[in-house]
Specification:
Pfam families: FAD_binding_3. This is FAD-binding domain-containing protein. Keywords: Monooxygenase, Oxidoreductase. GO terms for molecular function: FAD binding; monooxygenase activity. By secondary structure, the chain is an alpha+beta fold. It has two domains: 123 residues, D-Amino Acid Oxidase, Chain A, domain 2, CATH 3.30.9.30; 134 residues, FAD/NAD(P)-binding domain (3-Layer(bba) Sandwich). It is 34% helix and 22% strand. The strands form three sheets. Strands 2-1-8-9-10-7-11 form a seven-stranded mixed sheet, with helices on both faces. It has a three-stranded antiparallel sheet with strand order 3-4-5. The protein has a three-stranded mixed sheet with strand order 6-13-12. Helix 6 packs antiparallel against helix 7.
């Protein structure tokens, strides 16, 4: 990992294994991950580009799902993994995710002849502005830019040319490789999104399941990306939920609701603290006060930060899944 200031000065660099033998980083393009997981399922198991229009309970205990294309589905178990703006979460009584006060540009730089970067995670810190990039394949490099916009995230923009222009203006005087990454990103990979989260307050937030409907990942616990744990937690959710359901299905239909409740009770102590911690880390990294940023760059990052405590949240263990 390499951490630099906006003027290109190296604040710190290190190898994960040198500081903590338990740590490693694996960067994977999201599309490749989703395709790999989907290809492990029987053909036509996943129906892509489907949008839920309506959800309601039926008299026989099943759940009626109506898609926006008119398709109607009757489900014995519904697993809502439909993202941050989940209509299933809304139906279950969850509040809308809360804006964190800053937004992010993201993209994927493509180098057909091979990207020139080593297998490093690279961060650049400015005042109220930060960026990062990391190779995800021999030819592709993921990048992001986070910038403060405290009052509102502003209007939604989908024009790739305008998104590219705005992203470059934010980091106009920053290291040249970041500008080049933005230029080498195909239009369809560039996006701008407000960063949001939802804190699952004990006793106040609805449970993860209601009857035979349960939430997974961002649909339940959206968190800011400052710890890099959003998708990781969704995968953890899936593993635990799979185990709970597998045991319940063997025991009969009556055990399913209990299994869904047990999943939520087991996962909450993991996801709630991570959501809070990600929010606090983001708030610290987005400081725009000159004195605070100077202390961060000259004292905190070079001399005080230790990798083990910083990344302890990534340690998650579970028994191997049985075939």
């Amino acid at each position: 990992m390499a951490v630099n200031s906006e003027d290109g000065r190296e604040l710190r660099s290190f190898k994960f294994k040198d500081e903590d033998q338990t740590q490693e980083v694996r960067a994977v393009e999201r599309r490749i991950l989703l395709e790999t997981l989907a290809n492990e399922l029987p053909p036509e198991t996943v129906r892509f580009s489907s949008k839920l229009g309506k959800i309601q309970s039926s008299e026989n205990g099943e759940t009626l799902l109506q898609l926006t294309d008119g398709t109607t589905l009757l489900a014995k178990i519904v697993i809502g993994c439909d993202g941050i703006r989940s209509p299933i979460a809304k139906w279950m009584g969850f509040s809308e995710p809360k804006y964190a006060g800053y937004s992010a540009f993201r993209g994927l730089g493509v180098y057909p002849d091979g990207q020139p970067f080593a297998a490093n995670v690279n961060y650049i810190y400015g005042r109220g502005l930060r960026a990062g990039y990391v190779p995800v394949s021999p030819t592709k490099v993921y990048w992001f830019i986070c910038y403060n916009s405290p009052s509102s995230p502003g209007p939604k923009i989908t024009d790739p040319a305008l998104l590219r222009k705005q992203a470059k203006e934010l980091v106009n005087n920053w290291p040249e490789e970041l500008i080049r990454l933005i230029d080498l990103s195909p239009d369809e990979t560039i996006s701008k999104t407000p960063l949001v989260d939802r804190w699952l307050w004990p006793g106040l937030s609805p449970p993860a399941s209601a009857s035979k409907v349960v939430l997974v990942g961002d649909a339940w616990h959206p968190m800011t990306p400052n710890l890099g744990q959003g998708a990781c937690c969704a995968l953890e959710d899936s593993v635990i939920l799979t185990k709970k359901l597998a045991n319940a299905i063997k025991s009969g239909p009556a055990a399913i609701e209990g299994a869904l409740r047990a999943y939520g009770e087991e996962r909450w102590p993991r996801v709630f603290p991570l959501t809070v911690r990600a929010n606090l880390v983001g708030s610290l990294l987005q400081w725009d006060n000159q004195l605070v940023c100077s202390i961060r760059n000259n004292i905190v990052i070079p001399k005080l930060v230790r990798l083990g405590p910083v990344l302890e949240h990534t340690n998650f263990e579970c028994e191997p899944l049985k075939a």
